[in-house]
Amino acid sequence: MSTTPKSDTIAAAEVLVTSPGRNFVTLKITTTEGLVGWGDATLNGRELAVASYLRDHVAPLLIGRDPARIEDTWQYLYRGVYWRRGPVTMTSIGAVDMALWDIKGKTTGQPVYQLLGGAVRDRILTYTHATGWDLPQLLESVDARREEGFRAVRAQSGVPGLDTVYGVSRSGRGYEPAGRGAAPAEEVWDTDAYLRHAPKVLTAVRDHVGPELKLLHDAHHRLTPGQAARLGRALEDVDLFWLEDVTPAENQQVLRHVRQHTTVPLAIGEVFNTVWECQSLITEQLIDFVRTCVSHAGGISHLRRIAALAEIWQIRLGPHGPSDVSPVALAASLHVGLATPNFAIQEYMGYEPLVHEVFGHAWSYADGHLHPGDRPGLGVEVDETLAARFPYEPAYLPVARRRDGSMTDW
Ligand code: KDG
Ligand code: MG
């Protein structure tokens, strides 16, 4: 039975593209009763493709539909479309799904986590990023994160002999994953140099912080299975919370080899878009944490499905949360996190102050943890007037080439 009055239907679905320091795509769904739901549709470096998918192919289909029928709308946009799956499609469906959950929360006067069964925990453990070009700078960055209260920190460092490393600024300051400009910056990457260096740096970080701080590290998909197995073994004494994205996303069976050689906990999935891409990694227990993001993997409804499959296999969720996942999606992820038993940790890279102004939110950070807040719906309201002052600017993640000029994997 519908929770909204029969007369309430979707009256408008608009796409906002704004760039308050970086690009965000946001879906706004308005009902005939005047309720507004927000969804994040940001796909880093491919923002306008999702904006067009939503504007040109999804918004017209939403008009007149019952906003309460979230699952039916998900099925309609997924099963009803011949060209299913893929990041553009799934990010678009995710935005619609989030916006409809937001509306259902506002209709019922409940925060979304209550509609998902209520809280199973009081707050959500979060990890943030520490970066340093060299070891002293990295330790300083880790200490600064600890002073902010974080109990889990992802540590990334420079590599001797390379001029740039993705995600690590030479100044020691934070980074923005996408650089502005008409084309991606090009970096030179050397996996052998990285493999010689990373275990030494991470061991030194563990020695510095002691046993309790949870340490994480991201290999950004750049290793072969053999290299991944060697790195995992070399890091076993560091006692990582997880080692992330060791090998490229497509060839999942290679993780069997990695698993046979190391017990280092593996986290994968930030570039996956459906439960089907997670299926063998989960059912063969080839990973410990699934990283699918609420915005890129079909929204709240689909992330819950991934969580349900993972729960059976004792695999936990640690969703993606860099600065290119907007505060709307972060809110959605936190509502899922509060209500989902096998949700382990939420990545929280943080945002520039202007982003917090454009996306006013009920979620809050304190003492190494996040909470979605108790406002009805997702608890995020977008300042459209402020957003309109920052039009889209082309921006891309960098690409990396090996020393011989050939492309590496992302
Ligand atoms: O758009 C993806 C990037 O933000 C990427 O750097 C994120 O690897 C990432 C992470 O773990 O946050
Ligand atoms: Mg990552």
UniProtKB/TrEMBL annotation:
Domain Mandelate racemase/muconate lactonizing enzyme C-terminal: 135-265
BP GO annotations: carbohydrate catabolic process
Superkingdom in the source lineage: Bacteria
Pfam assignment, any one: MR_MLE_N
Annotated coiled-coil segments of the chain: none
GO molecular function: hydro-lyase activity; magnesium ion binding
Protein name: D-galactonate dehydratase family protein
